[in-house]
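**Protein of interest**
===
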Amino acid sequence: MAKRITLTLVFLTATLLGGAQLVSAQSFIASGNPYAPPVVWEENKRLSGVAPDLVNEIFTELSLPYSVRVLSDWERVQEAARKGEIDLIVSAYRNDERSKYLNFSIPYLPEQTVIVVEKGKEFNFSSWDALKGKKGVSGIGESYGQRFDSYSAENLDVSYYRLERAIETLNLGKADYLIIDLYTALIYARLLQGEDSITILDPPVTTENFHLAVTKDSPLNDHLEAINQKLDEKIAAGKINELVLTHFDRWQEKIATRSKYLSRMSQQRSASQQEYLRKQDEMARQRVLGTMINREGLPPAAE
């Protein structure tokens, strides 16, 4: 009887204090793709990047406690969301399948998806049909918008691997092209010393938007409107663009520091090579800046 009275008192106290106190005790679990820099990636067993920083700012401002769960790959993250093991994916494109188990925030970052090929194996890419009859690879669990996903499934030969293996498959000549987000392509080209060996084809395959994605059964949905308001404020203030440049520049600095150890050709670089790489880095940064000048004016994608 005493135990029942105690439980009743706890319930009444919580009711009188209101739902906010109950929510404050809820620690929401977030996760994201560990291989998608600079938007999100795993670093020292934690998630870093634009999206984790954005979530941290918004959740702190809204006094929403959360923890981050680093999972093995992007497919596993989506599986955890489907099973209700996490509350939030920090960055995701919208498609029909994901909409079955996720509610999406307003878009916070447009991103171009591009085709990457080996240098010397370029082909005319003016429409999606140009990919027919060729062997493609991409990252496991990836989506590039519902229309292209449907087109790819019906018309293209694309294999999905962990990103490192997908890049290796391209480098070994076992694939004709790699489908990858532009920012990640620019980073990985430099990281793997691929500036002399790959070409990013134009135009982009698609231009999609990243969203915060809340699992449908999560109590975090009660805060989605407030999260959207915060996102809108940060977009208007240029905060998202600032985060993208901060993390992209950080990757460039990190790669430049390590480049002599990563070079597959030589441990030494001539002055002319160093100047070439400096120009490549600046071109990459300018391409990133070009996606930010006008959020509604990105280059049209191929179809």
About this structure: The radius of gyration is 22 Å.
